[in-house]
Amino acid sequence: MAVALLKKFPQSFRHSIRGWKIRIKMKQTALVIGATGLVGRQLVTQLRENSAFDVIHLFVRRPSEVDHSKVREHVVDFEKPDEWTHLLRGDVLFACMGTTIKTAGSQEAQWRVDHDYPLQTATRAANNSVKRLVLVSAVGANAGSRIFYNRMKGALDEAISALPFEQVTILRPSILAGNRTESRPGERIGLALMQVLRFIPGLRAYRPIDVRIVARAMVNSALSNRTERIRIIELDAIFNEAK
Predict the structure, then answer these.
(1) Which residues neighbour 158 within 8 Å (Cβ) at sequence distance 6 or greater?
(2) pTM above 0.85, yes or no
(3) What digits encode the pLDDT tens for the residues 21-75?
(4) Distance CA 85, CA 59 (A)
(5) DSSP states of the chain as a string?
């Protein structure tokens, strides 16, 4: 009956109505963990500016100081997920949470932040019928690696991929270039030295990447019409995804 009624209106009006329906349908709710980090801050900025997202939920350990009409901030305790994970309801979960072993104090503590917190959050989001997840991992991620950091990231990639999301996208950038709020002098020195890797055949996969490019690739991948359930985007492909 609705279709028959619609046909009685002028064609231009019908097209307008159809377009209106499409635009409303495209509005999405984003969930973000790691919003106060280097990638996370840039991600939130780009989500705020993207008309496809009308609500952005930030789940943070400390206030982000983001003040925007789209943003809903939740200061949470990741050690007590039962208190807040019922709020994980939306269209896509963006996970860019991480720390350094220096900040964490030990490998066990870093594993807790980089692996356990994202995995428990993603598990609850999947159980709450969130359909898509976009995860920032790292170049060289491999659950069987002898290198602790690569092994940790690889283990998370595998665990995330096994969760019942309709689509999972994993980005594997190299060292991240951007303005940090915390001091990492060793990383700054490494970043300067690694700039030359773009010119060395075979080592381009380890060249630095600007966090704005990573964030743009995250947003673009979340909005793409791809059909594969698991997609791993290595460094070169991240640049392409961000275009």
Answers:
(1) 143
(2) no
(3) 333 456 899 999 999 999 999 999 999 999 999 999 999 999 988 889 999 999 9
(4) 9
(5) -HHHHHTTS-HHHHHHHHHHHHHHHH-EEEEEESTTSHHHHHHHHHHHH-TTEEEEEEEESS------TTEEEEE--TT-GGGTGGG--SSEEEE-----HHHHSSHHHHHIIIIIHHHHHHHHHHHTT--EEEEE--TT--TT-SSHHHHHHHHHHHHHHTS--SEEEEE---SEES--SS--HHHHHHHHHHGGGGGSTT-GGGS-EEHHHHHHHHHHHHH-----SEEEE-HHHHHHHT-
| Per-residue pLDDT, 207 | 75
Could you give the percent of the chain with pLDDT greater than 90?
Answer: 70
Strand-strand pairing, 209-210 and 92-95? unpaired
Mean pLDDT to the nearest integer, 221-241: 93
Compute the distance between CA of residue 123 and CA of residue 141 in angstroms, rounded to an integer: 20
What tokens does 224 get?
């793409």
Which pLDDT does position 158 carry in this prediction?
Answer: 98
CATH of 29-241, one of 3.40.50.150, 3.40.50.720, 3.40.50.2000, 3.20.20.120: 3.40.50.720
Q: What is the pLDDT of residue 175?
A: 85
Residue pair 44/58 in contact (Cβ under 8 Å)? The answer is: yes
Q: So where are the chain's domains?
A: 29-241
Interatomic CA distance for residues 27 and 92, integer angstroms: 12
Q: What does the block give as tokens for 181?
A: 């709020």
124 backbone dihedrals φ, ψ, rounded to 5°: -65, -40
